[in-house]
Write the structure tokens for this entry.
Amino acid sequence: MSKQRTVGRPSGRPPDQVRERLMQAARALFARNEFTAVSVKRIAREAGVNGAMIHYYFGDKRGLYLAIAEEVLGPLLEHLSTRAEPEDFIRGYTEALMANPWWPGFLLREVVFGADDFRAEFAARFGERVRSGLLAPIARRIEQGEMRAELDPRLTLLSLIGLVVFPFLARPLASRVLGIELDELGAAALARHTQNLFRHGVSDE
Amino acid sequence: MSKQRTVGRPSGRPPDQVRERLMQAARALFARNEFTAVSVKRIAREAGVNGAMIHYYFGDKRGLYLAIAEEVLGPLLEHLSTRAEPEDFIRGYTEALMANPWWPGFLLREVVFGADDFRAEFAARFGERVRSGLLAPIARRIEQGEMRAELDPRLTLLSLIGLVVFPFLARPLASRVLGIELDELGAAALARHTQNLFRHGVSDE
DNA sequence: GAATTAATTAAACGATCAGTTAATATAGGT
DNA sequence: ACCTATATTAACTGATCGTTTAATTAATTC
């Protein structure tokens, strides 16, 4: 009976494989659980490595958390980097959220419940892009008479974002209470619904 | 120097005052922090009593949590107990959320991150009321031609709820990024905006 | 091939957690 | 006046938390 030796540097492992496994495990856990509800030992266990590796690669637990937060913020900022008409925003973000269903919950936690300093940084990084990329086109179309004149551009943008994001936040309830399965519905159909409701409302007139 | 005696039943304190203080403190803490991030000792400290009182009055931490959850669910269920046209729902819930700004975050956290059993109970208690109180009127109005025929009633209801709730979820960002202060705006103005957008969309035609 | 650096684990650390127990003091009923 | 139920605190318990340290092995450098 030979006790398996596990301690020490392993042989032939490609670099950064452990780091990647840790991020994968953390991503999955933080998507469904609160920060304080996920222990570093659990992340390490599900990644199949020792808990001390988190501190080796990320300094501490928060460092790992910020690393995967950056994974979310990066692509979202990319999406917003160009001016977009509301219709394009609906389409693009519905697809992005459908492909990364763990984003909205993560963002919600940070933005709604997170520490104030993270919110400040988030607002700073997103603010200008949202205003120039989304708010400006809406304001322009109201001025030009393409949208109803009495609309407040800021409230309209808030409604627009809510229409796009909320279904993914309320996903479990949408499924249980209304029987809506976003996956089966598909990004295209959902985006079409949102575009139509945003453009025409429910009115038949 | 006389050491103050604190142990034992206090004199002349009206009953349930400690219980109420605990619920107040827990309400404030759970509104802004995650369940696991709030310790019983901290709740007790902020309520000015000993931590053991939580177990005396509520059995355990979860019992206290459920007690304040019930405070939210009760009134919300009341609101939904009667059939309501979407316009009335928008008005009523916007006012309720404006008066209790900590509700939506609390509820959403349960829905998005909460344990599955809570979600199931929540869905069971809300499901039928939402379907009969809100979904049925929408479906009827689509059938009768008051709303556009191609609308999916379930998706329309999801959009409706999102329009009402999202501004309160995104409150910090709405303030920072868009400069929208919900308090200054007022429930009436916000409800009017939501009603108009829901009814007519943004279209000028 | 010796020395150094990198990667990994096991074990232990001090802090903090939720929850329990025992002691104690008052209130209220008899 | 006495008893019992109620309310409260201090101190404790065992578990778990994030983090650190020491030991160990492989890879790299010289």
Q: What stands out?
A: The two ends of chain B are 82 Å apart (CA to CA). Chain B has a mean pLDDT of 88. The CA atoms of residues 82 and 133 of chain B lie 6 Å apart. Chain B touches chain A through 66 residues (CB under 8 Å).
